[in-house]
Amino acid sequence: MFYLSKIEHKFALPPHLLARPIREAIQSELERLFLDKVIQKLGLCISVYDITSIEGGSIFPGAGAPTYQVVFNLIMFRPFPGEIISAKVMSLDADGVRLSLGFFEDIYIPTHHMPYPSYYISKNNTRKWTWEYGEETDEFNIEISNEIRFQVLSVSYPTIPVEQAKESKPFAPMVVNGSLYHEGLGPVSWWQ
């Protein structure tokens, strides 16, 4: 789920950071550049783990800031297919369930990966997914704020759209698709 990724990056250090010790100033700028951003095929940047090397510091003609070549390690979030993760239900509708880890909210369980047979109910301001297990009297519900265990099916990095319709959901640079279709998956309360 979490990985260390070694990155090499060349950037100009803003002059307002030059009063600080150089390692601290570079760490601050790296955090501004990378934290909470998705890097294609690597995942979501959680933290700057360490700085391996710093080279440069030259000020080029016409530039008002020193340029550094930095090698550093980032802690990245990228779940792998088959991994089991616990998350909270953020929203649900007839298309499936959206989950949140607190720091990442683009996790989707589509309808065809819900436990079978299950169906969506929306009435009297109550929305839930219900799984009919065995006899008709055995119904298990999935509701908002339930803690859920799900299996990761895929992690995708959609291409950035040139134009986006106003009514469409916000663009997500990394999307995790999951499943509740196996034993032990679903709300934690089902299996206690």
UniProtKB/TrEMBL annotation:
Location relative to the cell: Nucleus
Molecular-function annotations in GO: nucleotidyltransferase activity
Superkingdom of origin organism: Eukaryota
SUPFAM superfamilies linked to this entry: N-terminal, heterodimerisation domain of RBP7 (RpoE), Nucleic acid-binding proteins
Keyword presence, Transferase: yes
Any single GO BP term: transcription initiation at RNA polymerase III promoter
The family this protein is said to belong to: Belongs to the eukaryotic RPB7/RPC8 RNA polymerase subunit family.
PANTHER family according to UniProt: DNA-DIRECTED RNA POLYMERASE II, III, DNA-DIRECTED RNA POLYMERASE III SUBUNIT RPC8
Function field: DNA-dependent RNA polymerase which catalyzes the transcription of DNA into RNA using the four ribonucleoside triphosphates as substrates.
Protein name: DNA-directed RNA polymerase subunit
